[in-house]
Amino acid sequence: MKQKNVILLIILFFFATSFSIKKVPDVSLEKIWVLENYLNGVSTYKAKARFSKNKPGIEFKKDGSLKINQNSSWCGTEPIEYEIADGTWQKTNDSIIAFEHTYWGGTIKLRAKIIQLTKKKLVLKQIHK
Fold this sequence. Notes:
Elements: H1 2-18, E1 32-39, E2 42-48, E3 57-60, E4 65-71, E5 82-91, E6 96-103, E7 106-117, E8 121-127
Antiparallel strand pairs: 1-2, 1-3, 2-8, 3-4, 4-5, 5-6, 6-7, 7-8
């Protein structure tokens, strides 16, 4: 009986130590994101090293500032000219981002819900008040 208890303890020890808790890596929002797709208020971005010359994008900076690569005018007819505008951003909770930036018509305030965030992909859904 004593030998069975020792064997059982050894098995339990190996079973318990064979599983380790893996820390989920902290994925940073703070990088350049270039728009890949937009459908029904949902924007899908890919992480890039720099803004695209022919696609919108967002750069979230650690200090709460941001850069927006956006249409430089009200007209959306091709060819679209892009400009980089300045703004600010903050996370209001784990999944909501509030940002404000300038555009050709003045200043705009937006809120978006983070649907998905990985090292290479960001999916945002615009929140309408």
